[in-house]
Amino acid sequence: xxxxxxxxxxxxxxxxxxxxxxxxxxxxxxxxxxxxxxxxxxxxxxxxxxxxxxxxxxxxxxxxxxxxxxxxxxxxxxxxxxxxxxxxxxxxxxxxxxxxxxxxxxxxxxxxxxxxxxxxxxxxxxxxxxxx
Length: 132
Hints:
single chain; 132 residues; mainly beta; five-stranded mixed sheet; 35% strand
């Protein structure tokens, strides 16, 4: 069954630089079914090497979490980690999380690239504004 998927791929390299790429339809299909922590070939993003899936979120911003299995949304009791900010010691909250498997509902996928991203020429800005 062919799905019309659309992912926003955010790729970070070992130096901390990150780029964003849009993957549509058949280009995005190799990511479907992968889990967080899995590696895939970086050729889907036009790079040579490996990409490791580190996270993501769905169309309404619900983050993916590594310890929630499957692709469904679940309400999970959290004490720390992804999706829970400013928790006091001993405090737990029930939050809506997305599972660790990439599905059609995922909008953004975060990846770690095992090499250095190629340096792209910076966009020329208006030099007249800087002189003033």
